[in-house]
Write a structure and sequence with these properties.
It contains 6 helices and 7 strands; from the N terminus they run βαβαβαβαβαββα. The protein has 192 residues and is an alpha/beta fold. It has a 7-stranded mixed sheet with strand order 3-2-1-4-5-6-7. Strand 2, helix 2 and strand 3 form a beta-alpha-beta unit. The radius of gyration is 16 Å and the shape is globular. The structure holds glycinamide ribonucleotide. Glycinamide ribonucleotide binds next to helix 1, strand 5 and helix 6.
């Protein structure tokens, strides 16, 4: 039986595209079963549509009930027989209801070598700190912000003339490869 993954996105969705491309090439030991976004304008939703993958939008309205939003997200995925949830540029924190159901089988990617530079601005913070090597981390999601168990990392060198954007783009190249490998590793573990 296929190892079914859900991919949650908020924006461009190039990490999602890497998973879809790997699947189309027969190089993903998993099936992207559904894509979810908190942002109706996310470019990644278009990528899902082009690949024929079902998607949903679950926006969080500022000031509204966060716990209810989290429970609804959990239900949206809970109905779909998902083995692994992949947060791929999903810019919302999942909460207690989500973790009660999907804890231990939700992973996230971060554009820095955790535990350094957690949060929303990994590439900017690394550049401002002046590190010469940064990178990307795939980790298991827990209740903290970028604090979960580290599953895989890949270093990326900071170049003297890097901007936040040029550095982030190079990190994302490494991130796409690392994410596909990590999903494949987890799918293989699921088989055994
Ligand atoms: C990626 O670099 C991912 O690590 C980062 O957002 C980018 C999404 O790119 N995620 C975070 O910073 C989460 N805190 P994409 O939309 O092109 O896949």
């Amino acid at each position: 039986m296929a190892f079914r993954i859900a991919v949650l996105i908020s924006g461009t969705g190039s990490l999602l595209q890497a998973l879809l491309d790997a699947q189309a090439a027969g190089e993903l030991r998993a099936e992207v079963a559904v894509v979810g976004s908190d942002n109706a304008a996310a470019q990644g939703l278009q990528r899902a549509a082009e690949a024929g993958v079902p998607s949903f939008v679950h926006p969080f309205v500022k000031g509204s009930d966060r716990a209810a939003w989290d429970s609804e997200l959990t239900e949206l995925l809970g109905a779909r027989d998902i083995d692994l949830v992949v947060l791929a540029g999903f810019m919302k924190l999942v909460g207690p209801a989500f973790l009660a159901r999907f804890g231990g089988r939700t992973i996230n990617t971060h554009p820095a070598l955790l535990p350094s530079f957690p949060g929303m601005h990994g590439p900017r913070d690394a550049l401002e700190h002046g590190v010469k090597i940064t990178g990307t981390t795939v980790f298991e999601v827990d209740a903290g912000v970028d604090t979960g168990r580290i599953l895989a990392q890949e270093p990326v060198r900071v170049l003297p003339d890097d901007t936040v954007d040029s550095l982030h783009e190079r990190i994302k190249v490494a991130e796409r490869v690392l994410l596909v490998h990590t999903v494949n590793d987890l799918a293989s573990q699921g088989d055994s």
